[in-house]
Hints:
Blueprint: E1 5-6, H1 9-21, E2 26-30, E3 36-41, E4 57-60, E5 71-74, E6 77-82, E7 95-96, H2 99-117, E8 131-132, H3 138-148, E9 153-159, E10 163-169, E11 175-177, E12 180-182, E13 190-191, H4 203-222, E14 228-229, E15 233-237, E16 240-244, E17 248-249
Parallel strand pairs: 1-6
Antiparallel strand pairs: 2-3, 2-9, 3-6, 4-5, 7-8, 9-10, 11-12, 13-16, 14-17, 15-16
Amino acid sequence: MPYPKRKKRKKFRAILEEQYGKGLPFAVYRKPEGVDIRAILQEDALLDTELDLSRPGFHIAPFNDKDTPAVCIRADRSYLTDCKGQLPKAAPAPHLTDTLAREIHMQLVQKSIEALKKGILEKVVVSRRFSLAISGDVLDIFFHLTRTFPKAFSYIWYHPEAGTWLGATPERLLRYHSGMAETIALAGTRPSDSKDSAPVWTEKERHEQALVTRFILDQIDQKNMHPETGSVKNVRAGKVWIPWGGRHGGGRQF
């Protein structure tokens, strides 16, 4: 990856706006508690679906890779700027009622309950699609996320053929360092109060955490690696507490 050039925030944003205006791919991200915001820009609009993790770039992949391939944005140019700056004002977005999406969600909830009762599933997370009308642009939203959730991985990813994706997540898929691969078991949530009091976990949250931990350890065992586990700590993510599972690393050199 080319060594990133440091730019002041105004110039950094102008570069991104120009890239976006030309319909050229780019990705911008801030690591958890990072002091810099980094951007990688691709010089052409080629849709690169070759999943080669040895190449510098920003990959985004679907949950089901059988239907849709992963896409990589090449790091032809790279820039960085600091995370400081005034927090942009965010107007509340009005919720749009989607009757069909609600009905689909309720049916899925009922199917999940039946599967749990029959012992087919031990744990399931049922998501629901909803739509919001927003004002402003995606860069405003991204910079707001970086300041609002400093402990999350914040990102915006754009490709003219694959769309725009942005978000802020506390979850880490994988960390690799000195021959050790690390991941995290993250399951169960409790609302956080205004005093930031430490959460009191119930048997339900402990059971959810144990299910995810056991699954990760089983997957590592199947790869003939020797996992090590660490302690669980409390981490606040937005308005909820989550139990952050300790290290689950494979002891085999890669």
